[in-house]
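[job 4471] stage=fold_predict status=RUNNING
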Amino acid sequence: MTERPDQLPEYLARLADENAARFITDGLLSGKDNVPSIALNQASEPLPETPRTRLRAIRDLIDDAMYTYRDDRPTQVDAWLAPRLHAVLRLTRAEAADSALWNYLALGVAPDFVVWRHRSETKTVNARYFKGPYHKQAFARLWWSAELFRNGSDYEPVVTACGNQDMLNTVLRLDVIDHRPTAQALVRLLKRDVVRTGRDANALGKAVNTAAATLMYDVIAPDVERDAGAVQRWIDEGEQGLSVHHRPLPHGPVEEHAPEASVDRLTDHFAELFADAPVRGKDESEEAVDES
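[job 4471] inference complete, writing structure tokens
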């Protein structure tokens, strides 16, 4: 099985897409080979050496995640790791949009995690978990899930959302999810067991996205103006070398929560959409129950 890199520098780096592709081999994707860490770091671009870019805290978090969930299905690690990764990295959205950062995390810091977490789905790992879009890449998908599903400083909605793989695989890629009341309303339907399965989440996401073509959610359920200063102050704490404890759920930027009235309005609306949404396999199972 692919092992953790034997050469870990002190600080994070960037690995451009064209360079990352050279290290994604069939042997790595099958979990048989390690990444040549010296050659990879020579092909990488170091980031400024500040407390926020220290690599050790990230690697420690990933080691803890793999140990904690060593006897469970690897998919269960997502709900635990997403909020903690977000709190440890403390990135701006512009920084998180840089695919080179995620390439380096996957290949230079934790290729063993990517293989452990994603090899179970098929015999080999899909290369896009190492180098791929934000909603697919192993670490980018977790960070963006935490960013888009957190409610101010509260990461509990992230834990709920990341507990349903279809919420990550389907809903995360929808444009409407950047509207906070929409994200919180979707999570609320999960918590209320209105939406239970991956197929349910998939059907709900499609229905909500389709309805958004004719209905402007930010008009019928307005959000408050975001406080960019709160996010920047939270990021600045990372520059001071602040550590994040792994066991308690951490706190995100101290922003105002999404307006409760807007979340309630959309929750009711989405519940109505879901009631009429086609869910794959639902009709067949209901017919089977009726006939039994």
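[job 4471] summary: The beta strands are 13-14, 45-46.
[job 4471] exit 0
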